[in-house]
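Predict structure. Chain length: 94.
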Amino acid sequence: MKKTLVAALTVATVAGSLVTATPPAKAGDNIGAGIAAGLIGGAIVGGAIASSRPAYGGPVYVAEPGPPPPPCYWQRQRYWDGYGWVVRPVRVCY
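Prediction complete.
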């Protein structure tokens, strides 16, 4: 929902900037004020986007601790590795 709203707002902003009629520039116009307003507006919009929550994030649920896991032990097991029987220690947990 948030992405759709941001996309619609972006399209509306770009379309609005293309449609507006600008008067011809004259010597003595206050162009510096327009540049400053654009920079301030960009900083505000950029700050709002940067401080928004990332799309991949979400609530984090932490399970309550349960009973301790059963004990584990080491057992020697043999297996065929293709050349012969090999014995190795294996940790077995239930």
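Summary: The chain is about 40% helix and 20% strand.
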